[in-house]
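Pipeline run #58 for the internal structure catalog. This entry was flagged by the ingest filter as a single-chain record with no existing model, so it goes straight to prediction. Upstream metadata was stripped on purpose; only the residue string is passed forward. Reviewer on rotation: M.T. Logging verbosity set to normal.
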Amino acid sequence: MFDHLEDINSRPEPFQFYTAADLWTDEHTSKQMLAYHLDAEIDVSSRRGAFIEQSVEWIGSHFKIDEGSRIADFGCGPGLYASRLAKLGATVTGIDFSARSMEFARGEAQQSGLSIEYVNQNYLDFETEDRFDLVLMIMCDFCALSPSQRMVMLAKFHSLLVQGGSVLLDVYSLAAFHEREETASYGPNLLDGFWSANRYYGFLNTFKYDDAKVALDKYTIVEAERTRTVYNWLQYFSAESLQSEFEEAGFAEHTLLGSVAGAPFDEGASEFAIVGRK
């Protein structure tokens, strides 16, 4: 028992483990995540509904979205951005790990008469011959990726864009990192049954890595028949560190924003966004 508790409370190296599939493809947790996506009053899996409307309006205007626009939405979830952008006339491809979200998105598109291509795949593995005017990665998905995964994604974005095309994504800032604290907590059915339909005991260890500007929420879920660990990594960025990654990937021209709704950049805010142009 002592050794097991030692393991539960152990600190891994930054991005040592990658467990995205355990969150997005598990039958139970994917159902919980979809419910969060569709709750327009909270910022959990997706932005609040009012913010999404504001964001899509700004994207449509800033990038001059019309019937000739081609957009790829990486981590599209149930299509909350993709469907709205398709209604502006754009040809949209949405890529997401969650089969449950893809099923919902396809059903909504069919009911609305929208022709959207939804690809159920880990976006790290996505390949296509299509080329796009705009690539999106919204809700700070970029922060969940390791340095090597981020370079894979930025190289992919660069190759998928037409000349003059843009990528828009948002990230957590160093101001948000400084607000995080290391904690350890435990409880039966941690997070009100989020992790399983069966009875379980949950451990949450939050670790901070000051040098790397990374935080980890490590969830250990103990059920009668299995024990599993889910690692939720988040990279936090300064303006300079994010710009450096974009420049290394070939995005020499880039603009910082306060959000994906076009707000002005604020160094003290918890999030910010970037537009990189090919």
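catalog note: Residues 70 and 91 are 5 Å apart (CA to CA).
catalog note: The domain at 27-172+237-277 is CATH 3.40.50.150 (Rossmann fold).
status: ready for reviewer M.T.
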